[in-house]
Write a structure and sequence with these properties.
Number of helices: 4
Strand order of the largest sheet: 4-10-9-7-5-11-12
Radius of gyration: 17 Å
Distance between the termini: 7 Å
Oligomer: single chain
Order of helices and strands: EEHEEEEHEEHEHEEE
Structural class: alpha/beta
Length: about 200
């Protein structure tokens, strides 16, 4: 059986775009071959840099941290839906039509964002739909699942229902359909989120 692995993570690099107000990403040398015979680098970034997983602790005062979730929550079947030609605010009806019937524990939403002001964000009814469907994880290729001027209700609706959120995916070139998701956050003790390496696998 042939398995194709598709990396859907954004590379972390110095100066990459971050959410307004978040720490900048810097990767800088500490020692080099000439001085020490080895290369060592220092990495500085926020927990929401690049492709990352939000835990309930991100928005909820007593929410669980990212380190408390078993990997089984982040590995398994997922559905990729393409809403790139839809309105920038994704409604309940839009997502329900794209998802269709069936049970999907993990849903990734492809939107082709190009900038902070070109985000495709969920509205609160869309978030409620995901809760009703029993989804355990939702992902987006936007930098945030809701807009920069929102009040956080989408995050709180999802995270209060223990739905993990992956933001900043790289879904260009990914066709809609069913895959196996492997998304591995760093085991940051007590953290509200973590950068992750996200991969889609498909047999055939």
């Amino acid at each position: 059986m042939n398995v194709t692995f598709l990396d859907v993570s954004r590379p972390l690099r110095t100066g990459m775009p971050v959410w307004p107000g978040d720490p900048e990403v810097t990767i800088s040398p500490v020692s080099g071959m000439e001085q020490a015979g080895v290369r060592v680098s220092r990495v500085s970034l926020g927990t929401h840099s690049g492709t990352h997983v939000d835990a309930p602790a991100h928005f909820l005062p007593h929410g669980a941290p990212i380190s408390s979730f078993p990997l089984s929550r982040l590995i398994g079947p997922c559905l990729v839906v393409d809403l790139s030609n839809r309105a920038s605010v994704i409604s309940r009806d839009m997502l329900a039509h794209a998802v269709g019937d069936g049970t999907h524990p993990r849903i990734l939403i492809k939107t082709h964002p190009t900038a902070h002001d070109d985000l495709h964000c969920l509205d609160t009814e869309c978030a409620a739909y995901l809760v009703e469907r029993g989804v355990g994880l939702v992902g987006t290729d936007s930098m945030s699942i809701e807009g920069p001027h929102s009040d956080g209700r989408v995050h709180r609706t999802l995270l209060s229902a223990d739905i993990l959120i992956i933001e900043g995916l790289e879904l260009r070139g990914i066709e809609p359909g069913e895959y196996t998701l492997i998304a591995l956050p760093l085991p940051l003790e007590g953290a509200d989120a973590s950068p992750c390496r996200a991969v889609l696998a498909r047999c055939g």
